[in-house]
């Protein structure tokens, strides 16, 4: 599963059509006129195609259906869905009314929650509510035109900024009120857009003070500093007066219930992992953390350290606890505070079992309500300040660089230091027990995925069944449930046929999902959460006869994947420095992809785990790969409107034994995924002898590992035997 990329951007307007008088919208429809018009045409065609297909006899060959091009029953797009495609006019009007109360010219709505999580609970999906865009990454910026003096008539602009994974999806989901800022393609960032809009309003009002507002709990302090610096730079030669201010009460929360039932915050019971699944007890992890802070940051022997843990997966890793408050992510909403005196305070509202209560008691962990963190920080920091004034001891609070602006504002009266959390590094290096469990999780998921692929091919090709993308993904879940310790998917399965596969983070809708067309490419990006570990695997398949272009482009992607896997690199190498190796074969064909090549993967934790990754984001140059990392390897290619290709394996970083250059040692990768590549899509003539041997050895390893778990008469056994046959 691809991880977000962050680069620069500019404004691209969205064209929208007029409403079709022949299409009748669904009950309680909130779709924009442009969406209704577009979908009305699709719906009419879809219904005619289904009616036509019903008249055909069962003996009619699938190839003749697939050859009908625009008349194919597989070409249908999703119909009107009020839950994703939203007319935002009234919502924006209500928001601008709230902005007026706070005298704001601009309000910024991020995707993240208080903990800077990439994937958030339903109640934290504010950006999705106001924009209608449901992707996991993006930021919405809304202005209120201060130069419009019509009382009660709120006007302004609204833009959505997102990265290359979501361009197609955003264009489909945003209505006529919104423009798209394409990160990495356009030239104006969302920060620059907000500042320029406010600068123009300030100058138009005689350089009056104009305010940009944000919820200080949802923006990291680092982001705030960067925005403030940019304001200073952009206005250095202007008399315009633009300021950035915190708005304590979230303005989206103030209007949400006018339009929808606001989701409730989940507070599900916690799960305690046993040693066989984590390999290191809490006290050992705590001691490592506090020792790390002392060694790296202590200024005197009398310094007393306090550390605030903000990231949810870091709290879960440290405590060896897991939750289910956010879909697909085994985390729970919490803050954690620790100090040198042995005090550990957990702020959370989740119910706990008797065993966890005993664990808390034995390890001196105090539990307080989640929202008490703010009042506690005020009292705690005031207390530390008083103690420091009356003794020789120095007190310092360490905050992770993911800390919100509000957390920093809460501790400003005592010395504090913002650091990159040591837990982020500790967590990314798996111990031997976690690595062994990761291998076991991969075997389980491989058995599930090959059973699913063999079933899907039989249904589509032999039985000529009509199966839509969503129901196919549900079948995979059904198969996975047979595996011991399966806890759920690690993200929403990307089950995509044909042109949908070109939408990098496509999610098939539950209703009116596209039928899987066996004459087109099928991309499946899927992962599991087992007690043993987290998986993230992508395979691109073709069930009949692919085009030569598809074969050659698939092979170019595969060559990049194989090249990363073969790498041997010296210690200290970062993912930033090896990203081009995966792209070289696509570049040679004038092609590329708009996402990173790899991301860290948690151990029964988040499927996207920092700090490491393989990609072109500059910050990755700061985080070298280490023995024990688990990282994805997922180059791809996407031809908009036609097909998409991605091949993703999970790799463990290992020591390259016997290799050294002086004192410098070397690293290598081990591909721990066990799902074969699609033989129909491989052009063996494009492969070197080394690459052919690499593929054949990999397929042989898959067969030898999985065959003992398969029934010889099963379709899975027969499918796998054919797919791993030597090239």
TrEMBL record:
Catalytic activity reported? Release of any N-terminal amino acid, including proline, that is linked to proline, even from a dipeptide or tripeptide
Q: What PROSITE patterns does UniProt report for this protein, alphabetically?
A: PROLINE_PEPTIDASE (PS00491)
Primary subcellular site in the record, as a coarse category: cytoplasm
Enzyme Commission number(s) of this protein? 3.4.11.9
Q: Which GO terms describe its biological process?
A: proteolysis
Q: Give start and end of each Creatinase N-terminal domain.
A: 91-236
Requisite cofactors: Mn(2+)
Occurrences of domain Peptidase M24 (ranges): 467-654
Q: Check the record and name the InterPro entries matching this protein.
A: Creatin/AminoP/Spt16_N (IPR029149), Creatinase/aminopeptidase-like (IPR036005), Creatinase_N (IPR000587), Pept_M24 (IPR000994), Pept_M24B (IPR033740), Peptidase_M24_C (IPR032416), Peptidase_M24B_aminopep-P_CS (IPR001131), X-Pro_aminopeptidase_P (IPR050422)
SUPFAM superfamilies cross-referenced by the UniProt entry: Creatinase/aminopeptidase (SSF55920)
| Gene3D superfamilies, per database record | Creatinase/methionine aminopeptidase superfamily, Creatinase/prolidase N-terminal domain
For this chain, one GO molecular function annotation is: metal ion binding
> Where's the Peptidase M24 C-terminal domain?
665-727
A GO CC annotation given for this chain: cytoplasm
Q: Where in the cell is it found?
A: Cytoplasm
What PANTHER family does the annotation carry? XAA-PRO AMINOPEPTIDASE 1
The UniProt family comment states: Belongs to the peptidase M24B family.
The protein's name is Xaa-Pro aminopeptidase
Query: Can you name the source organism?
Result: Maudiozyma barnettii
